[in-house]
Amino acid sequence: MISFLQQGVLWLLAAAILPVLIHLMNRRRHRTVQWAAMSFLLEATRESRGQKRLKHLVILTCRTLAILAIALVAARPLIGGFFGWNGGQLDTVVLILDRSVSMEIAPEGSSESKRLAVIQRVKSSLDEIGNPRLILMDSASGSAQDIDSPDILEELSAVKPTDTSANVPDLIIQAVDHITSQKLGRSEIWVASDLQAADWKHDEGKWASARAALQTLPQENALRVLALLGKPKSNISVQINSSRREAEELILEIQLFKNQGTQPVDVILNYNINGTSTSTPVRMQGQTLVRQERFAIPADSTSGYGYVSLTPDANPRDNVSYFAYGETKDTHSIIVSEIGESRAALEHAAALPGVDSQKSTTISPSEWLATPTDQASLILWQAPLPTEANAKKLTDFLNQGGVVICFPATTQPESSFQGISWEATESSAANMFFVVPNWNKNDGPLRNGLEDRPLPIQKLKAIRRAGILGDGSQLATWDDETSFLSRKFVGRGTLFFVSSLPDYSWSNLESGDILVPLIQRGLVAGSQRFGSGLAATVGSDAALPIAGEIRQRVDDYSETLSSNNDYSAGVWKFGDRLIATNRPYTEDNTTVISSENLDTFFKGTNYTLFEDQGSQENDSFTQEIWQAILVFMLACLILEAILCLQPKRPSELKSAAKTNSPSSQLASS
Amino acid sequence: MVGSAAGRHRSPHRGSSVEFAEYREYVAGDDTRRLDWKAYARSDRYYIKEFEADTNLRAYFIVDTSGSMQFSHGESMTRIDYAKQIAASLAYLTVDQGDAAGLSLCHEKLHLEIPPRRRASHLQQIFHTLNDIEPKGNTGLVGAMHDVAEKIPQRALVVVLSDFFCDMEAFSEALQHLRYRKHDVALFHLLDRQEIDFHFERPHRFVDMEDDTSIVAEPSLIADEYIQAMKAFLADIRTRAYDTNSSYNLITTDRPYEDILRDFLIDRLSKKGGKA
After folding, report:
1. Nearest CA distance, B152 vs chain A (angstrom)
2. Exposure check for chain B: N or C terminus, fewer CB within 10 A?
3. What is the distance in angstroms between the Cα of A16 and the nearest Cα belonging to chain B?
4. Claim to verify: residue B109 and residue B31 sit in the same structural domain
């Protein structure tokens, strides 16, 4: 797309009609001559068609184009796709800057991160369009900040790297609100992002709101998306899936993720526990490696902290994961179950024999309201889905970070919980089983275990199942692609639905190969709510100090700007309590959305997508193209000159006329 | 040349002259004074000795007076003025050496003829007539050539001065008619330099000098085609002149007419063995 910095001189384009006018005037202002050899003139006129007239038209076109080119050059055209025809007339630009972890990776061919690259391009582009007012809205704080000059943009703390994710639709809504409330005049929203799916794919409700907000703006084409899509360099991220203390041992479950390639890679894992550093070399065979490490800790220590780090690579923000631990705490499960075989299996999986720290309480559905849940990590609900007060209590538990796993009841009254309900039970054909061929091996309670070993899900055989109906996401599916395991995040907690029962009349779930890891991982996840004083995700409320608490960083991995403390991972002391904050691990997933996704998100609104490969060859979204137009003009003029050159006429006639000898005349003919 | 008076030009008739022509046998009625007695002595037969007889020239000038003869471009002489000068000069030279000069003026509606005479006063009449010419209308050249061919009883030099912008087939027939009547034909093709070069810079309205029709044209677009057409025309007329054994002289009006006359006369001398 082309835009113009000096649109005022575009009226010069009208001058392109001059050659045509001159041509027409010339034809009207002809001279009159008396002529004798009229028959030859008529014959010549009849024969002069086709190529000659085409040549004349080309000459006229060349002259017209040359004038057009002059007018275009005078208007200072820009090209680059990010700006449209209205680029030069902006009053305000609201820049939504994605400061998420994934923006810190450097694309191939560049040494600077996508975030730094986009800042440079924004600066150059703003300069080229006359530096309109710039308002920065960064993804971490979500607040609007008036920037005096783009020159200081990269110095601002509001553009520095963070360990947060981004919520793009929310930011767009906020930007529109800001433009509307501040009456910013002719404004555009520029979204600078790497289009990472985790930052863009929020629920459809958010996008519907964003679309509605954009449609309230008076200006068309008010949204421009700068997508930094350069292929990232090879990168490995580390995250601590769980950290728990068992007596005098600290157990860390560590996961490594490689963003490209499946070749084996040797990696050095650096551990720092309470200030003591150790290293372990490991070999990644695939794209993911899950590893459990146990560290001895003093029995008398009440708390501690540390981090696991990798050597620096393409993205320095995902090379570390922090943890903190406190005193040993028993885990409690509540099993709401009908009497039956499955109850025993659930009790067995929730409190493993020989593990004293795991306790479970089994109640009937009628006892639920009276049962306290403040010490519970996990609730297994194998009963008709709760309604009214029961449902509210269970929802409260979820909101506080608990994990609930629902199993089918033997009787299924028509009810739903959190938008999910059971379908009627279904039995398999005689001598046939329902099996689960597909499940998520990287995420959820059925993810691969240590050393990336998968769970033996294929051992599951069911003869009875209850369909799961609702808006949960599928983590495992039966062979007919209906859901075996669904998940829905509710508040800080997680709700699971399992489609069959650990009962011989339903399936072989009770054998433990699947049920035990499923419930134990739920237990670990649910226990995190008691570790809210120990772990949190950057950007969440839990990662912020409460009123009266003073934030102080205690780990020594890196330093952060005090103004960016809220958006930085690390081990912190909030007053007396210790907390390890980490980036949202969704940032490690490099999946990006497609342009079709964007079309869907912005359906009904006009937006411009500019895809930048992130190379350092050009530090601007725009490029003045006057040189190219001048070359074009020169080419037009040269072509015009060549075509205007009269071919050398035959000299025979002249020589014949000058030589009167009949013989020479005949010879010349 | 055939003439009614003795002159400077060789005649096909035998007569009294110093130049021997041939012997022929005596027939009754021959002048016995012309018997070659020496031949009789050698062969015992009567032979008459024939000599070439010198006679006078009849030159007939056909001048095209159509409207196109008024053409001139820039500072060059009009075609008709050029034709007048050539015709007048040649007529003067003709009468001056005792030959007869006649004149035929022609255009579409006028055919004026002055028969050949040798008197000086007759020359004045030719001059006055040439002086009074006003070119107009379409050409009547072909008709005039046919008329001349029919009316001149004896062989003559027919000099045609024109631009020859006429029907070539009819013109060719008129040439053959003249040659059939044994006339010696010289064509003076008068053209302006601009008519050959067609060198114009900007659009022009071209108005026909004979019938006032006009056409607006962009010279740069048609110049090549025009020049090709003109070239073909010149080649055609030159071929037709050659086929009828006529003398053809392409003349541009920017040349001094004295040069033209000199070249013409020298050319005729070389053709006729020393006598014009």
Report:
1. 27
2. C
3. 22
4. no
CB contact under 8 A, A661 and B197: no
Integer-rounded Cα radius of gyration of chain A: 36
Topology (CATH) of A236-326+534-588: Immunoglobulin-like (2.60.40)
pLDDT band for A659, please (50, 70, 90 cuts): very low
Q: Are A304 and A324 in contact (CB under 8 A)?
A: yes
Contact B165 A36 (CB under 8 A): yes
Q: Tokens in use for A60?
A: 């006229």
Residue A664's pLDDT is 38
- A665 contact residues in B (CB cutoff 8 A): 238, 248, 250
Residues 6+ positions from B96 with CB-CB distance below 8 Å: none
The number of beta carbons lying within 10 Å of the beta carbon of residue B135 is 23
How many Cβ atoms are within 10 Å of A642's Cβ, its own excluded?
10
Between the two ends of chain B, the Cα-to-Cα distance in Å is 10
From the candidate CATH numbers 3.40.50.300, 2.60.40.2470, 1.10.10.410, 3.40.50.880, the one assigned to the domain spanning A331-530: 3.40.50.880
Among the ranges given (A334-338, A528-532, B117-121), the one the predictor scored with the smallest mean pLDDT: A528-532
The residue that leads in pLDDT, B6 or A208, is A208
Quote the tokens at residue A509: 């779930």
Residue A26 Cα to chain centre, angstroms = 63
Total count of domains within chain B: 2
Q: Is residue A244 a contact partner of residue A100, using CB atoms and an 8 Å limit? A: no
Q: Do A34 and B251 touch (CB under 8 A)?
A: no
Q: Which residue of B has its CA nearest to A34?
A: B207
Q: Which of A24, A41, A655, A664 is the best mutation test for B, with the most CBs of B within 10 A?
A: A41
In this predicted structure, which of A509-523, A559-573, A577-591, B102-116 has the lowest mean pLDDT?
A: B102-116
Q: Cβ contact (<8 Å) for B227 and A649?
A: yes
Return the domain boundaries, chain A.
2-74+630-668, 81-232+590-621, 236-326+534-588, 331-530
Nearest Cα residue to A306 out of A551, A562, A101, A534: A534
For residues A75-82, average pLDDT:
64
pLDDT at A467: 92
pLDDT greater than 50 at residue B274: no
Alpha-helical segments (H) within A114-189: 114-128, 168-182
Interface residues of A toward B, Cβ cutoff 8 Å, are 26-27, 29-45, 47-48, 52-53, 56, 646-647, 649-650, 652-654, 656-658, 660-662, 665-666, 669
Domain range enclosing B251? 58-272
Output the pLDDT for position B276. 42
What type of residue is B124? Q
Residues B238 and B259 in one domain: yes
pLDDT of B110: 62
Mutate to test the interface with B, among A23, A25, A32, A40 (most CBs of B within 10 A): A40
Q: Is residue B92 located within the same domain as residue B166?
A: yes
Q: Strand ranges (DSSP E) for A585-625?
A: 607-612, 623-624
Q: Under a CB-based contact definition with an 8 Å cutoff, are residues A561 and A141 in contact? A: no
The CATH code for residues A81-232+590-621 is 3.40.50.410
Give per-residue pLDDT as tens, B167-190. Answer: 999 999 999 999 898 889 999 999
In B246-265, the residues whose Cβ lies within 8 Å of chain A are: 247-252, 255, 259-260, 263
**Phi and psi, residue B83, nearest 5°:** -65, -40
Are residues B102 and B202 both part of a single domain?
A: yes
Note whether B93 and B183 are same-domain residues.
yes
Residue B86 lies in a domain: yes
**Within a domain: B48:** yes
CATH number of domain containing B81? 3.40.50.410
DSSP H or E stretch at residue B190: strand B184-191
Distance separating alpha carbons of residues A476 and A465, to the nearest angstrom: 14
